[in-house]
Amino acid sequence: MANQNVLVSGKYYHIYNRGINGEDLFRNERDYEHFLFLYSKFIEPIAETYSWVLMPNHFHLLVRIKENIVYKYSRVDFPNDEDFNAVKWETVPIQKEIVSDNAKSPEAYLHFSHLFNAYAKNHNIVSNRHGNIFERPFKRREIDNEVYLKNVVIYIHNNPVHHGFCEHPMEYPWSSYLSCVSVKPTKLFREAVMGWFDDEANFQYMHNGKLEVEAIEQWLEI
Question: Dihedral of CA 157/166/178/65: which sign?
Fold first, then answer.
């Protein structure tokens, strides 16, 4: 794929990676929760999330890179006594904030790198190991039409089924499927996802159908 360091604003991407040499990335509940905590810190400021799944040795994400944002600390009205480390990853829309001439726009690719590096550092400390834990560079595929957006959502949610961890996406706790069919508040862009499927009934119906996994993986170059 051309220019691995670019994630273009306004574009949808399927992002995925796995443990180096097939090693497990997530071994227990704490690992899953810590990855999601870091994801919230590094990725939510620069991307909208539409679906995700964390498997023991790999993960899949469907995101859209945000447009017209700058770092919160580059606002001209930002208080000098704020704790820089507490807010340095936060972003704000350009059109809703007064920003200085040297306002800093985030590089989405670097945010993903920070996520993976932070998780790997903690993983190695806990595991008493060193070195990479992810394959590099992380993989991504631009999704440029609604048909593929729907197929990728279904593929991501059915990944645990495909790998034999459960019989239905509802049974797997580490994916966005449960958030999609819930009424609880969520940071997931649930309404947009349901819009692609028309309604929740059709969303569930299409997740129950047969999925051409090999064809999708071939297209995604997995």
Answer: negative
